[in-house]
Design a protein that fits this description.
The protein has helices at about 5-20, 45-55, 75-80, 95-105, 135-150, and strands spanning about 65, 85-90, 110-115, 125-130, 155-160, 170-180, 185-195. It is an alpha/beta fold. It has one domain (about 45-195): Vaccinia Virus protein VP39 (Rossmann fold). The termini are far apart. The relative contact order is 0.14.
């Protein structure tokens, strides 16, 4: 990337980070479980613009779940854009999660849960954002949990969808998008995934 574009991009990140969490959130954090969980990284803000505001139609009643919210940059961007939807972030790394929770506590529509999402799968929420948080076994479990709440009409926004094939089992519709970011000279992929029909609950 040309150095001027790099500086421009970093300044925008700094602006949004300071506006929401009052600190710069650059850098990666190693995984606490290399067998199942990917290291903590932050989604690029230009990708969130496309995913949430060009390829999604958010309603004010939608509840947004960030699976593996890390430092909270997804919520940063949504708050910066003026969204007041309820937002729930799950972060299994308690050290990272507690810091994010503290920095975002002034936003009453944001809740950060420092736990494994599978220990207390949300009883509410219909928009699930993932940036490749898990390895294959845990993505399979996540897929099964989504099927169990398909009466909510959940939508999965799966950025960097390494294990997309797990959802290609006849129960989901999957749209894969490859998006060029000419301004910064790279391309990324994401998928929009929906259960094909609600699973009826036993009476």
């Amino acid at each position: 990337m040309n150095p001027f574009k790099y500086i421009e991009r970093q300044l925008l990140r700094l602006k949004i980070d300071l506006a929401t969490q009052r600190t710069f959130l650059a850098g990666e954090i190693p995984s606490i479980d290399n067998d199942n969980i990917i290291k903590t990284v932050s989604t690029n803000y230009e990708e969130l613009e496309v995913i949430f505001f060009e390829y999604s139609k958010l309603d004010e009643n939608d509840i947004i779940i960030d699976v593996g919210c890390g430092k909270g940059r997804v919520f940063n961007y949504l708050l910066y854009k003026g969204l007041r939807n309820k937002m729930i972030g799950y972060e299994i790394n308690s050290v990272v999660g507690e810091k994010t929770k503290k920095r975002l506590k002034r936003f009453k529509n944001v809740e950060i849960r420092c736990e494994n999402i599978f220990d207390d799968f949300p009883k509410e929420g219909n928009i699930f954002y993932l940036y490749n948080p898990f390895k294959e076994a845990m993505i399979t479990e996540f897929m099964q949990r989504i099927l169990a709440v398909s009466d909510r009409n959940p939508v999965i926004l799966y950025n960097n969808p390494i294990h997309l094939e797990i959802f290609n089992n006849g129960n989901f519709s999957c749209q894969l998008f490859e998006i060029p970011v000419s301004r910064y000279g790279y391309t990324y992929t994401f998928a929009v995934i929906k259960p094909k029909q609600a699973v009826k609950k036993a009476p």
